[in-house]
Amino acid sequence: MMAVSGEQALAGERMFRMPSCLLKLTRVVLSHKPWALFILIFVFVSFAYHKLYWGIWADPKGRGPPYSLSAEISCAHSVPSSLNIAAGPSLSAQNVFFVETAEQTTPSYLFSCSVESAARTHPTSRVVVLMKGLAKGNASLPKHWAFSLLSCFPNVEIQPLDLTELFSGTPLAQWYLQPQRHQEPHFLHVLSDACRIVLMWKFGGIYLDTDFIVLKNLQNLTNALGIQGDEELNGAFLSFKPKHEFMELCMQDFVQNYNGWVWGHQGPELLTRVFKKWCSLRTIKSMSCKGVRALAPEVVYPIPWQDWKKLFEAVSALELHSLLKNTYAVHVWNKLSHETKLEIPSQALLAQLYSQFCPATYTKMKQDSEALSRRAV
Fold first, then answer.
1. For the whole model, what pTM was predicted?
2. Where are the strands (E) in the chain, listed by range?
3. Cβ-based neighbours of 111, under 8 Å, separated by 6 or more
4. Which pLDDT tens digit goes with each residue over 149-169?
5. Euclidean distance between CA atoms 355 and 340, whole angstroms
6. Which residues cross the membrane (predicted)?
7. SS3 call for 151
């Protein structure tokens, strides 16, 4: 049952009370020919429509947000007042992009942590999450705890991914429209590789895979990408100014040397090929060449992919600090690690990263873990 205040009741009474002028008009009409009744009906309907229209739209606050947060997420808890993001994003700051090329709209804990950690470390940037599974033109997000949580951050924008529009005006436009490409075994990963280089070329900013946990602001790492080890670059992190020639060369190589049947050919191998040509190198090393930086592994790939299990091993706070002192973000290698159970709470390296850098997501993880434990008893 919903209580109605005296002020609301009075407003409703005023809305539907027929004014004296209409009462007089009614008496006059009823004393004349029946056709005049049409005039009375027209005037009354116009009056009612006018009152109803302005009663709903006169106060924009009465409309409410297009998507209401679920009751389980408290924005006051998720975004503490000490986090200085109330002013919203700055026009001078670079955008931070995340992309989901699959149709799924049920973000994982790691997905939520990636976006939350980026939002916290980049309070003046727009953190843009592009998802293929979202319906274009639909103002509402699917009901899921992660969308509710991330909507608490004023600098996070979750939008549909329109691939035809994204690739338009680039060498990849015709590639995407070829239906046989969609049958290739690694197509979703290749599509993600395509999106990131086009985003960097068209708009510039920072691109991150959704299995990163961001520790520090990345804005000073401009025109840069990271070495993942084995003398190979990785595109899970990219940071470039718009229309950069290096990204243009990446788009050209994507089409000219295309092979969607070989894992990594359109991703790490492409970036490595282009960087070697760019710098006239035989092997990759940490360096700056013609305005593009290849960052040392510890900057964004401190845990090599071969050692991904270390993420689930216990470490002391001192060891954690020592390990990450030169690190801006940690790649979690979700393709390898996603089936491994993470104990929450624990001293595992990954659990400590969740706790420190995406505390709202970590709180949700703890709540879910405790609920499972109660059900198991």
1. 0.79
2. 96-100, 127-131, 156-160, 205-208, 212-214, 224-229, 232-240, 287-289, 292-295, 329-331
3. 100, 146, 210, 211
4. 999 999 999 999 999 999 999
5. 18
6. 35-54
7. coil
